[in-house]
Amino acid sequence: MKVLGIMGSPRIGGNSDILLDQALAGARDAGAEVEKIILCQQKISGCLNCEKCNETGICALKDGMPEIHEKILEADAVIHSVPVYFWAMTAQMKAYLDRWCVFFDAEWKWHKHYWPKMKGKKIGLITVCGDPNVHTADPIVHSFKTTVDFTRLSWLGAVMASAGAKGEISKNEAAKREAYELGKKGATP
Ligand SMILES: Cc1cc2nc3c(=O)[nH]c(=O)nc-3n(C[C@H](O)[C@H](O)[C@H](O)COP(=O)(O)O)c2cc1C
């Protein structure tokens, strides 16, 4: 099993990163091979809606994303971790998610050559917000969960936590345990 972690906060070593590491530790302990991609260290432009990928399944933008597309295809589970920025996901995570366009044709159907690798792929999410009410992150959960349902992938679940200062989440044992379990679940066939 391969579990891919996608880190969407620009604050490396911050709360989203800590929880994603917990999830990847859970996956590793369950026997999976794990890899983490830190989006802010990659060059990922926004989707241009040029529609070229509708025909070819190949993105016209030559940046860091095509390599990430390959890693998504090869993973059994992809776990995303992202903080709330202005009641939404970070710019890094949004640019990444929009580039999922490459997988679909003009009718938002899977390109035939991608579907065998994407079928049954598990998609998980971790959110962190400064607000003590974790439901501040509901729009992000909605975005990922709806994408997963719409594209007939498998929803692994969401871990929603609250923390403000860098690393503050380390004190939240319950959130760390939940993230660990999410990773373990991702590594379980
Ligand atoms: C630009 C920016 C916007 C933010 N907007 C929100 C927000 O709308 N709601 C919220 O609850 N927290 C907001 N926060 C706080 C972060 O979600 C919080 O500090 C989180 O722990 C950051 O996670 P990280 O350490 O993984 O980067 C914002 C932080 C920044 C830097």
The tally of strands reads 5
> Stretches where pLDDT falls below 50 for ≥5 residues?
none
CATH architecture assignment name: 3-Layer(aba) Sandwich
Helix content: 25-40%
Roughly what fraction of the amino acids lie in strands? 15-25%
Largest sheet, in brief, is: 5 strands, parallel
Any idea what the CATH superfamily is called?
Flavodoxin domain
Number of domains: 1
Distinct bound molecules:
flavin mononucleotide
Backbone structural class: alpha/beta
CATH class: Alpha Beta
Radius of gyration: 16 Å
Q: What is the spatial order of strands in the main beta sheet?
A: 2-1-3-4-5
The SSE order reads: EHEHHEHHEHEH
What general outline do the C-alpha atoms trace? globular
What's the N-to-C terminus distance? 8 Å
CATH topology term: Rossmann fold
Average pLDDT over all residues? 98
- Total helices: the number is 7
Describe the structure.
The protein has a single domain, classed as 3-Layer(aba) Sandwich (Rossmann fold), CATH 3.40.50. The chain is built from 7 helices and 5 strands. α1 packs across α7. The chain has 189 residues and is an alpha/beta fold. Strands 2-1-3-4-5 form a 5-stranded parallel β-sheet, with helices on both faces. α6 links the parallel β4 and β5. The radius of gyration is 16 Å and the shape is globular. The structure holds flavin mononucleotide. Flavin mononucleotide (FMN) binds next to α1 and β4.
List keywords for this structure.
189 residues, alpha/beta, Rossmann fold, five-stranded parallel beta sheet, 19% strand, globular, binds flavin mononucleotide
